Amino acid sequence: MQFIDLKAQYERIKQKIDDRINTVLQHHRYVMGPEIDELEKKLADYVGTAFCISCSSGTDALLMPLMAWGIGPGDAVFTTPFTFIATAEVIRLVGATPVFVDIDPHTFNIDPEALYDKIKSVIAEKRLTPGAVIPVDLFGLPADYQKIGPVTEEFNLPLLEDAAQGFGGTIGGRRAGSFGTAAATSFFPAKPLGCYGDGGAVFTDDPQLHSKIVSIRVHGEGSDRYSNDRIGLNARMDSIQAAILLEKMEIFPDELERRQKIADSYKQHLQGKVITPDCPDNFNSSWAQYSILFENTQKREINRNNLARHGVPAAIYYPLALHLQKAFEDLQYGQGDFPVAEDISSRILSLPMHPYLKESDLVKICALID
Ligand SMILES: *Cc1c(COP(=O)(O)O)cnc(C)c1O
Questions:
Q1: pTM assigned to the model
Q2: CATH 3.30.450.20: does it fit domain 252-368?
Q3: Residue with the nearest Cα to atom 2 of ligand 1?
Q4: Mean pLDDT calculated for residue range 53-58
Q5: Class of domain 6-102+109-246
Q6: If you take atom 1 of ligand 1, which residue's CA is the nearest one?
């Protein structure tokens, strides 16, 4: 059994993917080929934003808006400690300070009230200037933008949605990637929409931000390639990856439906055994992960070992909250600073989740859980 079955997906669309890749091999425009433009239009259309800028990874997609906004030393960037390292890493990469805010125990996403309080206290302390907020759409569930939006507006802060896992999720029919001043997503193979290598994209409605990021993506280029207006990156997406994504987008809506059916089935089979993930009214998850909660660490470890013995892969996202990582040692956080994130990380387990998971395998997985 696979945690994420990329082979089953490839077999479904093999001919089309192979043809698309072959087209790139024929036209030889490996970097910024015609597929890039085609993909960006299609992605912006899907998400519902004016602009999409494809790029080399989800990490660069998070980094570039911060660079474009001029976020740097002395700025506080508010985010969740319960996420993949990249979310907070980019804050450090621009020289700013990550300021963590605890999560909601049901959705695992940043707690909007705690965010409000934290911004207030940073302003009162006068040590750092609030610079931006990065909520994460964890495991596919969009963060609570209906409550976060008014907070960032009140303090006039740019909101960067980390939709690396949330791509395909919705709130009231509106798609993830459209909730921030800008949003970043990742096309790493294991994400809901993945390519065959690294890839990412930024979404925005802001034309000025769009043109700055287009420049940053290629070494800060100006009106021509050898005039440079700013310090940038080499953060382009390869044409081959864009070609692969164009084909995968065709089956993406169907894959989201399959993921939803699998999530429904998991919920039904796990009822009463463990806490299954919450999806608030009006929200749809893209089910990047299906993560359950056990009563305590010991129960989780017994179950994890039992699943492994029966050939079922399961993963812990995330075993150590970011404020306790060595990389952020200098921020001087400690155990107990974010009790919800710490508690969840000690009890959570993610089960196999992908559009091609068989019902018989799902039943087997659930039967092993106790
Ligand atoms: C995967 C991921 C990223 C980084 O994306 P890459 O494409 O691997 O650079 C950022 N944030 C979150 C929440 C992610 O899951």
A1: 0.98
A2: no
A3: 164
A4: 98
A5: alpha beta
A6: 164
